[in-house]
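Thread: Newbie trying to understand structure tokens

Hi all, I'm a second-year student working on a class project, and my supervisor (Dr. K.) asked me to get a predicted structure for one chain before our next meeting. I've only ever worked with sequences, so writing a 3D structure as a token string is new to me. If someone could post the tokens and maybe explain what I'm looking at, I'd be very grateful. Here's the chain:
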Amino acid sequence: MAKIAIVTDSTAYLPKDFVERHNIRVVPLRIHWDDKTYIDGADLSSVEFYEHLEKSSTIPSTSQPAAGDFLQVFKELAPHYDGIVVPLVSSGISGTVASAKTATSMFSEVPVEVIDSRTTTAGLALVVTAIAKAVSDGKSLKEVKYLAEGIVNRSKLFFIVDTLKYLHKGGRIGGASRYFGTALSIKPILHLDDQGKIDALGKVRTKRKATERLIQLAVEQADGKPVMVGVMHANAFEEAKNLQAQLLEQLDCTQIEIYDLSPVIGAHVGPGTIGLAIYAMEG
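---
Reply by user tm_fold:
Sure, no problem. This is what the structure looks like when written as tokens:
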């Protein structure tokens, strides 16, 4: 049975015990804020980050890992594994996939498969969770890649933000730009499109109505099938719990976990963001 290593990035913001249980290597992104650089998921907890963000007069920027960061991890893993699978944050919003592919081109000790998840946060967490199960079940690298790509193609991520200023400042606003500058009471419904870029699906007048629309989108995506769901939030745990409870009533959930948004993603969407990632089970 082949031994497959899993490498992902910090935007998945996976629980520490899950990472340790499955021997997952996490390559972090970085946050640059007021002349300081922080390692995502290590130097700042999500609670500390959002508290600071709400009080700060400046908005942090972020950067992807360097190719060398991935190359170092690949070299450390190679003596112990027969292959490496690398599910990562969408190339539509980050250069992380490009860095990993550059590292792969410089590495030949064992096969490496880089998976562009075309999603992030809870969506990436769901992809990594499925990969971890497949690896535990003894699947080959080729089988794991096929499974992961199938999930990527079936997955959707929907979210709402309290304000578009963070997406605008960070240059990730994409198709949501047409709503920038509208009244604060307007809540755009956003998603990651087929290229993994941020786009808008519509707008409503209150966050309550926006949450109702998220649930409606999830029900449409499920189409009556059992689903895997990840609820995500940026310093809005009570809202996330409420969304989780409503989704449990409406859907046949095989799994529905709540995930914090990592600080590096929170820097772009801002506090108060809630959303969900979902894909239907096959068979």
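A couple of things are worth pointing out once you decode it. The chain has a mean pLDDT of 91. The longest strand covers residues 253-260. Feel free to ask follow-ups in this thread.
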